TrEMBL record:
This is Sulfonate ABC transporter ATP-binding protein. It comes from the Bacteria. It comes from Burkholderia pyrrocinia. PROSITE patterns: ABC_TRANSPORTER_1, ABC_TRANSPORTER_2. The keyword Nucleotide-binding applies. InterPro entries: AAA+_ATPase, ABC_transporter-like_ATP-bd, ABC_transporter-like_CS, ABC_transporter_ATP-bind, P-loop_NTPase. GO terms for molecular function: ATP binding; ATP hydrolysis activity. Belongs to the ABC transporter superfamily. Keywords: ATP-binding, Cell inner membrane, Cell membrane, Membrane, Nucleotide-binding, Transport. Residues 72-303 form the ABC transporter domain.
């Protein structure tokens, strides 16, 4: 979202299951309740009210956990590539609330993984701010745990249970026995209790990712960060891991920030989706994905929504349109 002095465009072109609550298209300007089924007044310019635009359906679903956890405000990120300085994202803003399944969706090179690393505290923005629970993010911390897509994130000399227990002892300072007990608990939740004493090289890719997820959940972070965690898996294993992730969320209702370049995966995993433009990443739209599940994949409605999101990501009219900041100036 943008600052209070800027207008924020709203579009309502999706059916009930997927409604657009904001987009950087200058063509339609509607107040935030328009995307939630309210009566549509004349199109108008409205100020940004960051807390007010949280979808009512999501707030009710999250219940007592609907407080804002993460506030990303006009974050621009850069990195060095050889002799060049490359801008990865430009003035990206959004909020993540308790128990959200928030997805960053965009094509390769749009800066979504760089943005996730900045939220984790590994990269400092060149401008803008990142706050967790109202406090600026100054570096990594146990309140944010990252699951990467690489399978080699598990030290090979440690057993499965030792891999899960190690950060509990190093970061959370738990006694050895308590750390092992909690590690075994979360390994059971991901279906790997029988492999607690196995070594990573004996596990499949999907099993290694389950260990990584168990390790992250065992830390009980404020936000679980996942950077394309299933991208390297085959299609069948990927679907199984998506099912496992949603099952775990149903049980623990953790707050999830998930990066993907797959529109289909975003619709299934997320209840809120932020679309980032091709490089450099700017906010194109924020969507509410209300009722899609793995069972709806392949249906006509699901395919229609995939096509609509694809147009939002790559429509040349949107690409050439002024940004929210430019439209306000």
């Amino acid at each position: 979202m943008v600052g209070p002095h800027n207008p924020w465009p709203y579009v309502d072109v999706f059916p009930a299951r997927v409604s657009i609550v904001n987009a950087t298209s200058p063509r339609t300007w509607l107040p935030p309740f328009a995307a939630r089924g309210g009566a549509l007044p004349a199109a108008q310019t409205v100020p940004d009210t960051r807390a007010a635009i949280r979808p009512a359906s999501d707030a009710a679903q999250a219940g007592a956990h609907s407080e804002r956890l993460l506030a990303i405000d006009r974050v621009s990120l850069e990195y060095r590539s050889g002799a060049r300085i490359v801008r990865a994202t430009h003035q990206v803003s959004f909020d993540v609330y308790g128990s959200d399944r928030f997805v960053l969706l965009g094509p390769s090179g749009c800066g979504k993984s760089t943005l996730l690393k900045a939220i984790a505290g590994f990269i400092e923005p060149v401008s803008g701010s990142i706050a967790l629970d109202g406090k600026p993010v100054r570096g990594p911390g146990p309140d944010r745990v990252v699951v990467f897509q690489e399978f080699d994130q598990l030290p090979p000399w440690k057993t499965v249970v030792e891999n899960v227990a190690f950060p509990l002892r190093a970061a959370a300072k738990l006694p050895r026995a308590e750390a092992r007990e909690r590690a075994l608990h979360y390994l059971d939740k991901v279906g790997l209790s029988a492999f607690a004493d196995a070594y990573p090289h004996t596990l499949s890719g999907g099993m290694k990712q389950r260990v990584a997820i168990a390790r992250a959940l065992a830390m009980q972070p404020r936000v679980l960060l996942m950077d394309e965690p299933f991208a390297a898996l085959d299609a069948l294993t990927r679907r199984k891991m998506q099912e496992e992730l949603l099952r775990l969320w149903d049980e623990f209702r953790f707050t999830l920030l998930f990066v993907t370049h797959s529109i289909e995966e975003a619709l299934v995993v997320g209840n809120r989706i932020l679309l980032l433009s091709p490089h450099p990443g700017r906010v194109r739209a924020e969507l509410n994905s209300h009722a899609h599940s793995l069972d709806s994949v392949g249906t006509g409605e699901f395919r229609d929504n995939v096509a609509r999101i694809h147009r939002l990501l790559f429509d040349t009219d949107l690409t050439n349109a002024p940004t929210t900041e430019e439209a306000a100036s």
